[in-house]
Design goal:
By secondary structure, the protein is of the alpha/beta class. It folds into two domains: about 1-305, no CATH class; about 345-575, Phosphatidylinositol (PI) phosphodiesterase (TIM Barrel, Alpha-Beta Barrel), CATH 3.20.20. It is about 60% helix and about 10% strand. It has helices spanning about 1-15, 15-45, 60-65, 65-100, 105-115, 120-140, 145-150, 155-165, 165-185, 190-195, 200-210, 215-250, 255-290, 310-340, 365-375, 400, 415, 435-440, 460-475, 485-495, 530-535, 550-560, 570-580, 585-595, and strands at about 345-350, 375-385, 390, 420-425, 425-430, 445-450, 480-485, 500-505, 520-525, 540-545, 565. Strands 1-2-6-7-8-9-10-11 form an eight-stranded parallel β-barrel, surrounded by six helices. It has a two-stranded antiparallel ribbon with strand order 4-5. Helix 1 (about 1-15) crosses helix 12 (about 215-250). Keywords: Membrane, Transmembrane, Transmembrane helix. This is Glycerophosphoryl diester phosphodiesterase. It holds the Pfam family GPDPase_memb.
């Protein structure tokens, strides 16, 4: 316990020694490396007129454009090298700070890039396994820029948690296995970087050193992590409470105080991010130095100091840049705080239900949802049957909802409409799309129709069949169409440019795809404000799915999305209504915190806005 306390104390005592190098390398990655890799990927795709990159076209890229595929693999290798460089830079930095040795940024960069000469093909395979599979699932390196972008989308986690107990058990076991492997191999790269051991030796030594030390590692990690989390939470909440009081009792200075308070929170968030990034490296290197008797030697190259005049000019330029940067932040804060309201997006019922009020994609649920909640659109799913009709069904296989182990396209419409589907303690007939559409038109309820197709289906035939049957009704009633198949959305727009079509994206990998669609329906896990802004620049709308809590509602509104697809309409409506007539500055600061990636630190539920008179 004493060592844990001392470790935590030393970590915070050296905070400002990390600041400049980490910020520099972080900016280098965010402003140079990541944009370059993204631009390179887009260039390679556009050069061969490949409009997007997703799970359903990877094989076709390899078969039709092998050179492009290998070039994309080269980009993947560069991504792994970037991760290695960030890991190396932070490892060496923490080592020198712990040793209380002064080291300059050029010296750190030299020591970091000099490690590239040790890279071998076997290292690349290890990185692919360790960085891309083990660390993201284990959560050990969530602060690393590129690793933090690797995540399981929310909709997959929800599906695992609610539909298949064996999938949930498998996911939990996989996560626990990743934590175990991630911990047992946690000394591998520090051993390679600081002691220049070979990969095989590092694997063996790490496995031996980590045995029986998990409790020590865990308590040191948790002690610092909780201290970081608590300090940021307390600071942000106290400042928001202060702003709430100023909003109510001194409104004449509220904007000025909000600008300053928001800046303090931004600086606090920056420190929190920086220390969270360093945390895992500090704990690992601290343990490594305790457990190994070998002396650690990092070769540094001495760089000749610039003339005094040049150094003075450099410091002056840095000071000027800092003042300009602070001024720009101030301007941004004033602009953000001066906005009266957030966006007012469309509210779209997911699969025609809300609050589990019926069986998804059935007519009774449609009637109940439309008449009770009045959504702008009802999102629902259609599939083509064996006899080329259309039926309302989400799943490809009927087993889960109808208890029949058959695929939809293996049965005729007449056979399908005899089935009963069950969910949420309710049951209803499986409807044809003709019946569902007729009822929606009677209710004056607009639909967002998702066309689902098997991977090898003829998209042109499906789109032609669908438009021949429903084009007139869709245009007359302002219904919209979407699909997870990029080729199908392209075919729909090619055959009828007037139909509103949205492409569904499960993952925002390289930004806005090149497409002739009218909108993108993007899963919330990887949707960001940059994607929305670029989509709007291209004249495309953005729908976010699935938005089921107040925090996410406000974050998506902050991004200026055009529609929210939800399973809980009351939560979405209540959250929007709470802030539709104008917000206090304290509310705006709370919402801004969400976009800093700290949604778990703030409470934006319907009750939170009434708490503390915010």
């Amino acid at each position: 316990m004493r060592k844990t306390f001392q470790s935590t104390k030393d970590f915070f005592k050296n905070t400002f020694h990390y600041f400049a190098p980490v910020i520099f390398f972080h900016l280098l990655l965010l402003l140079v490396v990541v944009p370059t890799l993204t631009a390179t990927t887009n260039f390679l795709l556009h050069r061969k007129e490949i409009d997007y990159l997703a799970y359903d076209n990877v094989l076709s890229i390899f078969s039709q454009h092998p050179l492009t595929a290998f070039a994309l693999l080269g980009v993947l290798v560069l991504i792994l090298v970037s991760v290695f460089l960030e890991f190396t830079f932070l490892t060496i930095l923490v080592h020198f700070v712990k040793q209380k040795e002064k080291v300059t940024i050029p010296e750190l960069l030299y020591a970091t890039f000099s490690r590239l000469r040790h890279l071998r093909p076997s290292f690349i395979l290890f990185f692919l396994f360790y960085f891309m599979l083990v660390l993201p699932l284990s959560g050990f390196a969530s602060g690393i820029d590129i690793i933090s972008a690797i995540q399981v989308p929310n909709f997959i986690l929800e599906f695992i948690a609610t539909n298949n107990w064996w999938l949930l058990a498998a996911y939990i076991l996989l996560t626990l296995l990743s934590i175990f492997i991630g911990y047992r191999l946690i000394f591998v790269l520090p051993l390679m970087i600081l002691q220049q051991k070979k990969l095989r030796t590092s694997l063996r030594v790490s496995w031996q050193m980590s045995k029986g030390k998990f409790k020590v590692f865990f308590f040191r990690f948790i002690a610092i992590f909780i201290s970081l989390l608590a300090s940021f939470w307390i600071i942000s909440q106290l400042l928001i409470l202060l702003q709430s009081a100023i909003d109510h009792h001194m409104p004449q200075i509220a904007l000025a105080s909000a600008t300053v308070i928001m800046f303090i929170i931004q600086v606090s968030a920056l420190l929190h991010m920086l220390l969270s990034l360093i945390l895992i490296f500090y704990v690992v290197i601290n343990l490594l130095e305790e457990l190994t008797p070998e002396e650690i030697y990092v070769e540094l190259r001495a760089f000749r100091l610039l003339p005094k005049g040049w150094r003075w000019a450099g410091r002056s330029l840095l000071g000027l840049f800092t003042i300009l940067f602070i001024a720009l932040i101030g301007v941004f804060n004033v602009y953000y705080l001066s906005q009266d309201t957030l966006s007012n997006p469309l509210i779209i019922s997911h699969r025609g239900v809300s609050e589990k009020n019926g069986v998804q994609n059935t007519i009774p649920a449609l009637i109940e949802t439309s008449q009770t909640y009045h959504p702008d659109y009802v999102e629902m799913d259609v599939r083509e049957t064996k006899d080329k009709q259309f039926v309302v069904m989400h799943d490809e296989n009927l087993r889960l909802l109808a208890g029949v182990n058959k695929k939809v396209n293996e049965l005729t419409l007449a056979e399908l409409t005899k089935l009963t589907v069950r969910e949420n303690g309710k049951s209803a007939p499986l409807p044809s799309f003709d019946e569902y559409l007729k009822e929606a038109d009677r209710l004056n309820q607009k639909l967002l129709i998702e066309i689902k197709i098997p991977l090898k289906e003829d998209v042109n035939a499906v789109s032609k069949n669908f438009l021949q049957r429903y084009k007139k009704d869709i245009e007359a009633k302002n219904h919209q169409v979407q699909s997870l198949s990029f080729d199908l959305t392209r075919s729909l727009k090619k055959q009828d440019s007037s139909t509103f079509v949205s492409y569904i994206m499960t993952y925002n990998l390289i930004g806005v795809p090149k497409s002739n669609v009218d909108a993108f329906s993007v899963e919330i896990s990887t949707l960001d404000s940059e994607f929305v802004e670029k989509a709007h620049d291209y004249g495309k709308k953005v729908y976010a799915w699935d938005v089921n809590d107040a925090n996410t509602v406000q974050r998506m509104r902050l991004y200026d999305v055009d529609g929210l697809i939800t399973d809980d309409i009351p939560v979405v409506k209540k959250t929007i209504e709470k802030t539709q007539s104008g917000m206090s500055f304290a509310q705006k600061i709370r919402i801004y915190l969400l976009d800093l990636g700290n949604a778990d630190l703030t409470d934006l539920s319907s009750d939170s806005f009434s708490s503390f008179n915010v």
